[in-house]
Amino acid sequence: MISAHVPTSGHDHVFLGSGHDRNEYRTSTMMAGEIIAGTIFGSMALVADGWHMATHAAAMIMALVAYYYARRNARNARFTFGTGKMGDLAGFASAIVLALIAVLIGWESLLRLAKPVQIDFHQAIAVAVLGLAVNIASAWLLRNEDHHDLGHSHDHAHHQHHHGKGQDNNLRAAYVHVLADALTSVLAIVALTAGSLYGWIWLDPVMGVVGAIVIANWSWGLIRDAGGVLLDYNPSHEELPGEIRHALETPQDQITDLHVWQLGPGHHGAIIALKCKAPRAPSHYREKLSDIHELSHVTIEVEPFV
Question: Both 183 and 262 in a single domain?
Answer without folding.
Answer: no
